[in-house]
Design brief:
The complex is a heterodimer.
Chain A lengths: L1 H25 L5 H19 L1 H6 L11 H20 L6 H16 L5 H35 L4 H36 L6 H19 L1 H10 L5 H20 L6 H14 L8 H33 L1
Helix pairs in contact in A: 1-2, 1-4, 1-7, 1-8, 1-9, 1-10, 1-11, 2-7, 2-8, 4-5, 4-12, 5-12, 6-10, 6-11, 7-8, 7-10, 10-11
Chain B lengths: L4 H32 L3 H30 L5 H31 L8 H12 L2 H13 L4 H30 L5 H34 L3
Helix pairs in contact in B: 1-2, 1-3, 1-4, 1-5, 2-3, 3-7, 4-6, 4-7, 5-6, 5-7, 6-7
The chains are: A mainly alpha, B mainly alpha.
Amino acid sequence: MLGAGVYCGWNIGANDTANCIGPTVGCGLLKFRKAVVLVAIFVVLGGILQGQHVMETIGKGIIAEELDYTAIQIALICSGFFVTIATFFMIPTSTSQAIVGGVAGIGLASGADINYAKLIAIAASWIICPFLTMALSFILAHALSFVLRRIRISAILVQNALGWLALMSGCYVAYSLGANHAGIAVGPIFNLGIVSPRILLCIGSGAIAIGAITYGKKVTNTVGKGITPLDIPGAFVAQVSSAFGIHLFSIFGIPVSTSSAIVGAVVGVGWTKGMKAISKKTVCIILIGWILTPSLTAGSSFILYKLISNAIQ
Amino acid sequence: MIIFKKEKEVIDLIEKHADKMEECLSTAIKTIQAYLKENIDEAKKLGRETDKIEKQADLIRHEIRNKLYYGAYMPLLREDIYKLVECIDMVANSAEKCCDFFLNQRPVIPDFLKPKYLEAVQESLGVSAPLKHALLCYLKGLCPIEVSRQHSRDIGLLESKVDQIEWDITKKIFSSDLDYSHKIHLRLCLDTIVEVSDLGEDAADRLELVTLKSMI
């Protein structure tokens, strides 16, 4: 169980690091090595200081019944496996999408009462969120461009300030990642009540930090460089739009994927330079990844749960 | 304002450096003008002055480098800023080199070429004013960024004008009855003059690139 949690945490770190530092590394503001150290520090801080709330609520909501440990393990392993595959192919997918897919697959396999309304709301947010952040970043980029072009202001100082703000927002996203996802990774183990929550959160956030350091570069490059070339103002706009979009969804209580938010925001920044500035191939691969990850996780969880429960019976 | 104190100090130093570059180029023009009027003593004095100003510009450049090294600006911007300062310093260096050519090699400029040489010197070394203006527009926000880019493009046009003058002079040199060695020497002298505007254009291109980076 602990191994599955650590594996899930490692996957989150490997894939979701791009959400924190993709634009910052992509525009050349920081080298990956330095940026990932910041991510590791803030993820661990977030996990330890504020990870408890998510850890206590994870696994509840999509299906009405409490999941047994086998089901949780299957959901974690299947989602982790497909996120690893996505990371290998440099696709910024969402771990939460994969976990939702896994839990839904198990719900179907066990014949549990699935909360379809909630599932549809979550799936709709995966579609709406990137479009929303794309529109936000497009508008914000145009507004910033208007200001920079017409206002008499030291452009180099503005660039410096935007760079710092982009960096700080990256650290904030890393902190939120730790606070939110450390609990996702180790939440099921917390329910067993064997290990103290603080130690569990240390393990969960530590796994995310190690995932970021060891395998985070691939997806970071896709988000920062693969979709569109970014400069400092572009990186700032992408970070802020993504954060604002996520915040909007949070107000309405809809769980949303930070990966889809940042990808949408980066596409929006590229769009301001024209459609030619966006790598359509990369965007298509990402979209396919977004469809396949939860679908395959749901399918594999469904099959695996059926097989194991039949074997036990 | 408390924030970005170090960064503002760098901007002030770059402004000082740009002032020195402008001073260096205007003194170099005076030096060559004095030389063409065959007032060699005055030209020597002004040449030494040009040399001194260029050294002062170098010291300011070192100070800028130290400030950047000790943490002013983010690493990505430091590189851009220092390369820009280096480009501007090279313009001042080339002006000094131009004076050195005249005072060290003493090229004999025939009377029929003197007005054209003078025009080439004034146009080529006159690149300093628009370059400084474009730079300060960008760094200090003296004008909107689009105006700064327009100044950078104007420097490109000025360089094209210098190229045209260079073409005319070269044609005149090689269609004259001068010795071949004399022609080559005059041509070398012309090369050092036009190099100033070439480097000015390089600096303007670098500035435009940096300007583009600060826009979306």
